[in-house]
Amino acid sequence: MSRATVAPVMRQSRGTPWLYLLPALIIMTVFILYPMINTVGLSFRNADGTASAASTCREGQPCWGAWENYRYALTNELDTGNASTLLESFWVSSYGNTIKWLLVMVIGTVGIGLVFSVLVDRIKKEALAKSIIFMPMAISFVGAGVIWKFVYNYGTSQVQIGILNAAITKLGLEPVAWLSKIPINTLMLIIVGIWMWTGFCMTMLSSAIKAIPEEIIEASRIDGASNFNIFTRIQVPIIAPTIVVVVTTMVINVLKLFDIVYVMTGGNFKTNVIATRMYTEMYTNAQYGRGTAIAVILILLIVPFIVMNIRRFTKQEAMR
Amino acid sequence: MTTLSLSRRLPKRHNKREGSNVGTGIGIAIILFIWLIPTIGLLVTSFRPVSLINTTGWWTALDVNNGPASSQYPDPNAGYVEKLSSRFTINNYVDALTGYRGTSTYLDACASGTKPLGMNCNLSDLLNPRGMGRAFINSVIVTIPSTIFPIVIALFASYAFAWMDFKGRYAIFAVLVGLQVVPIQMTLVPMLRMFAGMGINGTFPAVWLFHTGFGLPYAIYMLRNAMSSLPKDLFESAYLDGANHWQVFRKIVFPLVTPAIASLAIYQFLWVWNDLLVSLVFLGGSKPVMTYQISNMVTSLGAGWHLLTAAAFLSMLLPMIVFFALQKYFVRGMMAGAVKG
Asked: How far is CA A162 from the centre of its chain?
């Protein structure tokens, strides 16, 4: 930290910095660091942490000893009958669903955010248009869940009061139970996520696009480049570092995502993701061992991004 | 309506019309339409009577002759406005606030003289534990300390990280950058056990403590960035005038980082206000907050759309006001977290 040079200017006793730091350090140690370590420990114990996880093994059943909770977390949702049932069951397991969420939601939010910020850059009411896209960020996932549950409403009677089913019945198609029909239901949940988070991506990307020097765009336009070419060959490559940041932020957000699934389907109809499954095991089933094992798997997926964050921070500091 | 700050930061450099065409307009219109329709549907529905919600689409709300015979205006020759006004109501909001779940409406039931079960037909019904009125108060009680505590503690720590010299300064801060993205799920079980041991599960302090702990890494990160971007000369001249750290912190740094504090406060406030998971685990039904109350109505009680839409809109009211009134700070608070490339 190059800024360190200033500190010796000011007179300070050696203890002073710790006086300022201590409350924060104590709280973070007690409420984040210690519980994290504790979680890892509990993931090798039984349901209430009183004995080793190995004690929950049953005669004649597969068992991974102390890693029993991990066996449960990783394989319980799978149907290992044969290769095709395995694949099929994986695809609707919490892991398969999390992969779907990652792919569709990240591409959706970043893609729409990117296209929209380029389009909106050309119109006059830019600020208003952006406000509308950003607004869902202010409300809760629970609120958004209710909003979209109503959009997806499936009426058993003749009248469809959900606008989506009303629209498709108008087109002569049969109404669909969007939230209970597998596998389309997970996609419908992801749309809610995209609706909420596109504003975040758009704002980040938009400020990067605006930072591109106007001369570059002007020059290419004089050379006869179309809007599309300017977008794909100039704007996107220049803002690539920002896109990377936005994508990693979104990946982390998606991995942690809990509320949308919990409120809209409760994880039923094979819509569970890792975060909701962890909650079910821990809270509904009171299986602390299994719940914490799922949490550990979740953090392992996030660790690469933690490392990336720290690296990027280090680089940034070196440049200051 | 205020404007998004980021589009204003740079001067307008080129003619906006350049490069725009019909395709651009249509593309934007389609996206905006998709973004607005769901929320408009919720808002319109929340003001419609139950009988109409369940028999007609909300997009036909202005069609005064739609719906079953029972919902028709008694006088077929009445004017449009008269008919229309009979098709909108605030009863859903009253019922949601008081937690009324009967077949009639709260106001009608009370007017008829027979008090609904568990209701007093006066203002005290706003405190009914099943209602959104009580949940609103609980949300406020949860949110305010959960916003103030982490920011106050973070102010001190971030000052040390930005302008003090101590061993391990860099390493500790790097850990903190990593802690920002640790998922809540990673600490839920141990915290639940710890709070059970302290006997504070289901009480407000449990949630305050949890949010303070989890809010700190981001708060320190953001405030430290704001503080370390202050000019160095400021500190040097203050030192020459004989100021010590405490005076510099209080008289110079604090006033200069108020915009950053505002952004952070709004971010943390909305994060806690909108949170479901922490309230679900540590407060549950004993002190229901708004998100909990709604999720409960959706998942187990099977409340009708008239209650759900009104309740959802009530929970969105405060965030919406904050969003439109303080958009600049709100956007900044959201964006500061992503480490810029």
From this structure: 27
CB B279 within 8 A of CB B289: yes
In the prediction, which pLDDT does B113 show? 81
DSSP calls for A56-86? G--TTS---GGGHHHHHHHHTT---SSHHHH
A154 phi and psi angles, rounded to 5 deg: -115, 110
Token output for B98: 């008081």
Q: Residue B209's closest CA among B192, B186, B222, B185?
A: B192
Query: Cα(A307)–Cα(A300) distance, rounded to whole angstroms?
Result: 11
Q: Please check the confidence at residue B212 and state whether its pLDDT lies above 70.
A: yes
Walk along chain A (320 residues) in steps of 10 and give the mean pLDDT of each run: 46 83 96 96 93 87 91 91 92 96 97 93 89 92 94 86 94 93 95 96 92 91 90 93 92 93 93 95 93 96 90 82
CA–CA dist B327, B1 (Å, integer) = 9
A182 touching B, CB under 8 A?
no
**B309 touches A145 (CB < 8 A):** no
Contact B3 A128 (CB under 8 A): yes
In this structure, are residues A10 and B247 in contact, taking their beta carbons and an 8 Å threshold? no
A211-267, pLDDT tens digit by residue?
999 999 999 999 999 888 999 999 999 999 999 989 999 999 999 999 999 999 999
Going along chain A from its start, the domains and CATH numbers come out as 90-135+190-319 (1.10.3720.10)
Is the CB of residue B208 less than 8 Å away from at least one CB of chain A?
no
Q: Which of A140, A156, A228, A314 to mutate to probe the B interface, most B CBs <10 Å?
A: A140
Q: Which residues of B touch A295 (CB under 8 A)?
A: 183, 185-186, 188-189
Of the candidates A149, A163, A109, A157, the residue with the CA atom closest to the CA atom of residue A259: A149
Residues of A in contact with B55 (CB under 8 A): 159, 161
> Would you call B19 helix, strand, or coil by DSSP?
coil
Which pair of structure tokens corresponds to residue A78?
A: 């799978």
Amino acid letter, residue A268? N
Nearest CB neighbour to B245, from listed A16, A126, A309: A16
Of A28, A242, A245, the CB nearest to B216: A28
Give the 3-state secondary structure of residue A45: strand
Q: Which of B293, B138, B96, B99 is nearest to A263 (CA)?
A: B293
Interface of B with A in 36-55 (CB under 8 A): 36-39, 41-42, 45, 53-55
Minimal C-alpha gap between B166 and chain A (Å): 7
Is residue A235 within 8 A of residue A205, CB to CB? The reply is: no
Q: Which of B7, B53, B315 to mutate to test the interface with A (most CBs of A within 10 A)?
A: B7
Measured CA angle at A99 (ends A95, A102), to 5 deg: 135
3-state secondary structure of A52: strand
End-to-end alpha carbon distance in chain A = 8
Question: Predicted ipTM?
Answer: 0.88
User: How many angstroms separate the CA atoms of B305 and B322, rounded?
Assistant: 26
Contacts of A108 (CB under 8 A, 6+ apart): A190, A191, A194, A198
